[in-house]
Design a protein that fits this description.
heterodimer; A: 250 residues; Ubiquitin-like (UB roll); Fumarate Reductase Iron-sulfur Protein, Chain B, domain 2; 2 domains; 5-stranded mixed beta sheet; two-stranded antiparallel ribbon; 8 helices; elongated; B: mainly alpha; binds iron/sulfur cluster; binds FE2/S2 (inorganic) cluster
Chain lengths: 250, 208
């Protein structure tokens, strides 16, 4: 019988939010179609390091297993990616897994991305539907922008773009590419556009769109292929116009 | 709501492109006169001396010192907000992003030295007028200084040319990837040309 092929994982772990990180290595049996999440599940079943030490299972997050929920984002061989759709066959070995340190680490590969939710609140990432008016049928979408809106609506707040962006992190207050571009999605919406000035004004605040330094990492990193830099440029145009209105309308 | 950050950031971008871009072009233009030897450069310097002293000083403070200080100080604040990561994300634009910040740090140090030595000490305090002969003896006696000046020019030229690209993005002028690439290629072309001009006029001190 041929010898079982192994895949070596070098995992950066940490026991709690404030504890020091350390690395451990694990071997997982190779099988065709194996991906990083499936390999982490194998490690969870049998958390024994390459030196035969039994350790606490590695903690990480996943949910949909098909690149729609965003939960499994981690740094794989140095780049932010979704673990569920990272095939072992496409990765250089040994495979290095690290938590995305742009966000606070809770434990091992598990991170706290609630800052993205806070930023979505800041830019008013929703459409106002309740009010003192009758709720009629849904308004029609502009067919010329529907495709763009559909594209941006794919965002799964995974945070790949945030991890890749050199201007997002503990050293900066930038809300980051994803929440910024979400403002454009809601500005395109037939009801959401009523609040467009509010969103643009929020983007002009400290930590808003002006903190983007045009490195364009975000557009390369986005697993949903959202043309982030194009919409950032569009929003830059929009905030400039909003600034002119702010100055000359009063 | 007065969006201070927004206006300061946009001013930083404008000042860099227009005011400091002018200063850079003036420097390249005047210094390239060295290619014509001592009479050409000294002639160009004498032309500048024709501007009345108070106006000249006003221009130096208003059109050079003030924009430069603002751009440098706010720029340091911007630099501190970045974690440069071209090692992990080695895309061309990310390298340019990192280089924009590394050249900025180098320029802060270089310009302090350049301005203190040539403008404040040599011309201001010692009262020695800047001339072809002065620069030539300075560079030929200290080739390391000449090299540092060449690097300082390269850094300033790259910082300015890459700044044209980011200006077009920041102001929403170039939106799509095609036009952004075209502008980036053109600015890097300009960068190469200006660097060659710099090499030519700096080299001329050593061959003439
Ligand atoms: S283009 Fe802007 S938002 Fe995108 S990665 Fe670069 S700095 Fe971040
Ligand atoms: S924009 Fe793309 S990379 Fe960023 S959070 Fe959304 S899906 Fe993820
Ligand atoms: S588990 Fe949902 S995106 Fe990977």
């Amino acid at each position: 019988m041929a010898e079982q092929k192994k895949v070596r994982f070098v995992i950066e772990r940490q026991d709690g939010p404030d504890s020091a990180p350390y690395t451990q290595e694990f071997d997982v049996d190779y099988r065709p179609g194996l991906n990083v999440v499936a390999a982490l599940m194998e490690i969870q079943k049998n958390p024994v390091t390459v030196d035969g030490k039994k350790v606490a299972p590695v903690v990480w997050e996943c949910n949909c297993l098909e690149k729609v929920c965003g939960a499994c984002m981690m740094v794989i061989n140095g780049k932010a990616r979704q673990a569920c759709c990272s095939l072992i066959d496409n990765l250089e070995q040994p495979i290095r897994l690290q938590p995305a340190r742009t966000f606070p680490v809770i434990r091992d590969l598990l991170i706290d991305r609630s800052v993205m939710f806070e930023s979505l609140k800041r830019i008013q990432g929703w459409v106002e539907v309740d009010g003192s008016w009758d709720v009629k049928d849904a308004p029609i979408q502009n067919p010329y922008t529907a495709e763009t809106a559909y594209e941006i609506s794919h965002c799964m707040t995974c945070g790949c773009c945030m991890e890749a962006c050199p201007n997002v992190g503990p050293q900066s207050d930038f809300i980051g590419p994803s929440p910024t571009v979400q403002a454009y999605l809601f500005n395109l919406h037939p009801l959401g556009k009523f609040d467009a000035p509010k969103r643009l004004n929020a983007l002009m605040e400290k930590g808003g769109i002006t903190s983007c330094g045009n490195s364009q990492n975000c557009v390369q990193a986005c697993p949903k292929n959202i043309k982030l830099t194009t919409y950032l440029a569009q929003l830059n145009r929009d905030v400039n116009k909003q600034a002119l209105k702010n100055i000359f309308n009063h | 709501m007065f969006h201070t950050t927004f206006y300061v950031r946009r001013l930083h971008s404008l000042v860099g492109l227009l005011a400091l871009g002018m200063v850079l072009f003036e420097h390249i233009f005047t210094n390239s006169m060295a290619l014509g030897g001592a009479p050409a450069l000294n002639g160009a310097l004498a032309m500048m001396e024709l501007i009345p002293k108070p106006i000249f000083l006003g221009l130096e403070i208003g059109a050079i010192a003030a924009p430069l200080l603002f751009h440098a100080i706010y720029g340091i604040y911007i630099c501190l907000q970045a974690k440069n990561n071209p090692g992990r994300y080695g895309y061309v634009r990310n390298w340019q992003f990192a280089l924009q910040r590394w050249t900025a740090w180098f320029l802060v140090v270089f310009l302090v030295w350049h301005i203190f030595y040539l403008r404040i000490f040599t011309k201001g305090i010692a009262g020695t007028p800047i001339s072809y002969e002065l620069l030539q003896s300075y560079f030929v006696a200290n080739p390391v200084y000449a090299l540092l000046y060449i690097l300082g020019m390269f850094a300033a030229i790259f910082h300015f040319c890459n700044g044209i690209t980011t200006f077009c993005m920041t102001w929403g002028i170039a939106k799509g990837p095609r036009i952004q690439n075209v502008i980036s290629l053109m600015s890097m072309g300009l960068c190469a040309v200006l660097c060659l001009v710099t090499l030519a006029f700096m080299g001329s001190y050593f061959v003439m």
